[in-house]
TrEMBL record:
GO terms for molecular function: nucleic acid binding; RNA-DNA hybrid ribonuclease activity. This is Ribonuclease h. Residues 38-103 form the RNase H type-1 domain. Pfam families: RVT_3.
Amino acid sequence: MFGTKHRQELGIPTCPLRIKAPFSVGCSPPHNDSFKLNIDGRSRGNPGQTGYGGVLRDDQGLVILCFRHHLGVGSNTYLEVMELRMGLEYCYLLNTEQVVIEGLFRNIWAEVMIIADYIDVKVCHV
């Protein structure tokens, strides 16, 4: 394994290791008789390695389902569509009828509405 000195001699850029402190994440439950789907994804570059995950909770805030997927190389738009698509597919498979979706989205509302056509969906940009 190369140390910092060897990397510098070879002209390979180095960056300091950053260790992030753990933090807690809160979630407010949806209204009665509905579910909340929280989803998020990451991309290392655009295009780049992409992956996403999500949590589905009931109206009491209890976790019904957690998921994560690695997509391989893709664009940010592809990632956002796939995280929504898979989250909605899980909702459909679990027969959820009313779903509030929270995530960081950009300009993909047309794709979302096509996918969400079969269930009552409320989408919130956070």
